[in-house]
Structure formats: C-alpha cells, structure tokens
Design goal:
218 residues; alpha/beta; Rossmann fold; Arc Repressor Mutant, subunit A; 2 domains; five-stranded parallel β-sheet
C-alpha cells in the first residue's frame, strides 16, 4: 500500500485528490497539510511513502518544505505539483530533492500513475513537457556544479546520463545504445552511485549543472 501525504493550501484541492487516490486499491491518503511547516510535521509523524506537494502556499513554500523533508527522511519521495507559469519553481524543486513533478491540470489517471511511479523509486521526468521546463530553466545560467563526479563516469555511463537528461526511458536508451534493458539498468545504477544522487531526476539536474548536456540538445 502506497501511503500518501497531501500538501496544498486549498481544502477543495486536497479533498479532490483524496477522493481520487483513496479510490485506488493500492494507495491510501494518510494525512493532509495546508502549508510547508505543517507538511514537515506531518511527514515526520506519518512517514509517508509519497508527499504530493504544492509549490505556492502561505508561509513556508513547497520548495523549502521539500528540501527539509528529503533531508530529514531520505526515503520519502516528493512529487511536486506545478503549472506552466511556474517554470522557475520546477527547477528549484528538483534541486531541493523532488523525485518529479506533474502539472496541476494533469488527467486523473496521470496523477495516480505519477504517485505509483515515484513510490516505486523511479522518477517522473520522461514527458516532453517536463524536459522543456527543465531545459528552459537550465538555460538561465551556465554550469554551476563541479564536474569531478561526472569525470568518474565511464564513456558508456556518460552516454547513459546524456540520454537520461533528454528524457529517454530505459527501453529507449537500450534501443539507442544497442544493448539490453538490464544493461541499461546496471549503467543507471552506477551513474547514480558515482554522482552521489538517489534517483534519475537528481542525475539530470547534475547533468545540466555540470554542462554534460545543454538546453536544446537532443
């Protein structure tokens, strides 16, 4: 059972999400919070698998709340909800430790799938809209992260990282590199370990910050 904490300052939004998620056989909403401070308290008390986090809230925003929750509870996954006019918040949320994000007007089925994907330890970064948002924000500045960790990657691992940063799935990477999916999974694991990150989203952030890929690369 995937245990979810809902964080949004609008009660009607939380109620809608609760109805949708509680209707699933494998998902249970264990708590709600209306601001960042309360989200941190609830996350500590309930240890949810996934936090569905709004960005703009009174008091502490969702980005700072994400940063503190992930720092205190690395096993908790945060799925950030955003809108098209909040591009800069998306990148900040990824840097804060979010495992992915969805648009607030995403179809119900996509929201449910997103919760399951993040809970399973994967990252929600594949959709092209996500890639465009990350690239647009990354374009605002040059590389900011030291490249020592990236330099530890083998040629194959660096190639895998480049594909990850372009939003390719394991199956698509396998096809592009003419290898099996199991091999890709192994490479991805090595990339995460060497970069010192916990999931694909964080690896992509490093890739952009270190200049491994640049906005607009395909």
């Amino acid at each position: 059972m995937v245990r979810v904490l809902l964080v949004d300052d609008q009660e009607l939004v939380r109620s809608g999400f609760r109805m949708l998620l509680d209707a699933q056989d494998d998902i249970e909403v264990v708590g709600e919070a209306s601001d960042g401070d309360r989200a941190i308290e609830q996350a500590a008390a309930l240890s949810p698998d996934v936090v569905l986090m709004d960005v703009r809230m009174p008091g502490m925003d969702g980005i700072e709340a994400t940063r503190q929750i992930v720092a205190a509870q690395p096993a908790v996954r945060v799925l950030v909800l955003t809108t098209f006019d909040l591009d800069e918040y998306v990148y900040a949320a990824l840097q804060a430790g979010a495992s992915g994000f969805l648009l607030k007007d995403a179809p119900a089925a996509e929201l449910v799938r997103g919760v399951r994907v993040v809970a399973a330890g994967d990252s929600l970064l594949a959709p092209s809209v996500t890639r465009r948002l990350v690239e647009e924000v990354a374009a605002k500045g040059g590389p900011t992260r030291k490249s020592e960790a990236v330099d530890q990657l083998t040629a194959k691992e660096r190639e895998v990282l480049e594909h990850l940063a372009r939003g390719l799935s394991n199956a698509e990477i396998a096809e592009a590199m003419y290898v099996g999916e199991a091999t890709v999974k192994t490479h991805v694991g090595h990339v995460l370990t060497k970069l010192g990150v916990r999931d694909r989203v964080q690896a992509v952030v490093v890739a952009y910050e270190a200049g491994v890929v640049r906005p607009g690369d395909r």
